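Researcher: Please predict.
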Amino acid sequence: MQSRISAGLLVYRRLQDGLDVFLAHPGGPLFAHKDDGHWTIPKGEVERGEDLLVTAIREFHEETGIVIDPALDFLPLESIQQKGGKIVHAWAVKRNWMDDPLIQSNEFEMEWPPGSGRRQRFPEVDRAQFFPLSEAKRKLKERQEPLLDELAAALGATPD
């Protein structure tokens, strides 16, 4: 069986006091009251034959509503494997938004509450924001933390 493959972007900004990264919180009722250890980089599954970076840029837009220019300089990061076996390919890209942008996420549908027969729609991402690197390590899914370490090393930042 082939592993599922996702691609995403780790957007960062450099401030005088350090490095911030932009993370997304999954939407829907299953994550409504979960915080630390549940945030993620905006990412999504790759279609067969699709370019990984093209997927990462598209998925970032679908999950946040923010357009990332494909002509920017993207720093490829080592892929990681999540607990469920999914392989995640990621790129870092610098964006200097000073305020957290308002996001507009695509939606998914699920039966809620379970067993009710009622289908509801929820945003795939319910919020997204920049975090200082040390706080991002606490917020991010554990298996994605190496992406932060690699970005910090590549930029000469202190991972805290």
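Model: The longest strand covers residues 5-15.
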